[in-house]
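A.,

Following up on our hallway conversation. Structure tokens first:
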């Protein structure tokens, strides 16, 4: 367990929280932090869907609340599970408690949708500035990560998309 566990805000992604936890505790390697939090070296590195939720509960001593609620509120899982039958949603959450689901995007119907299964990190420069002014650090907001969301609903400005090799778009510079 880490010495410092920051607050997890309702609109903050668990991915963002993991990054802050890593930084506050002087983490040397992201895979090491992921292993401490989730019991696996790559679990915390996925920003869209959670896995190994029981390990997160244990490593944080439930300080963040129930991992089931975190998965539904602080990841994209809540967005997608809202349109899945209740029994299927519970099955998916149950499987994610102890491991990963390699075919999760297929189970959720994402690969067959026009939106697609790639979710680049997105953020609003003005939200980042507001976060830094009020908290001292900025974070990834869940509502900015939702598929097809391209505009911040609070500031009514386009979201910057973090560069990645699949979607080579550079975020705007201040």
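Then the amino acids I'd put at each of the 174 positions:
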């Amino acid at each position: 367990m880490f010495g410092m566990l920051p607050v997890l805000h309702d609109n903050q992604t668990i991915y963002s929280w993991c990054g802050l936890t890593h930084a506050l505790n002087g983490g040397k390697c992201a895979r090491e932090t992921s292993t401490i939090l989730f019991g696996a070296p790559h679990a915390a590195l996925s920003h869209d869907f959670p896995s190994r939720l029981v390990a997160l509960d244990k490593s944080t001593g439930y300080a963040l609340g129930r991992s089931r609620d975190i998965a539904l509120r602080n990841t994209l899982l809540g967005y997608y599970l809202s349109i899945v039958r209740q029994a299927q949603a519970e099955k998916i959450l149950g499987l994610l408690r102890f491991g990963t689901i390699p075919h999760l995007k297929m189970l959720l119907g994402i690969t067959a949708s026009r939106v697609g299964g790639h979710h680049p990190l997105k953020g609003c420069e003005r939200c980042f500035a507001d976060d830094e002014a009020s908290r001292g650090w900025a974070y990834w907001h869940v509502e900015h990560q939702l598929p097809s969301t391209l505009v911040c609903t609070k500031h009514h400005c386009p979201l910057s998309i973090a560069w990645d090799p699949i979607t080579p778009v550079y975020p705007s510079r201040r």
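The beta strands are 122-123, 160-161. Curious whether your intuition agrees with the design.

B.
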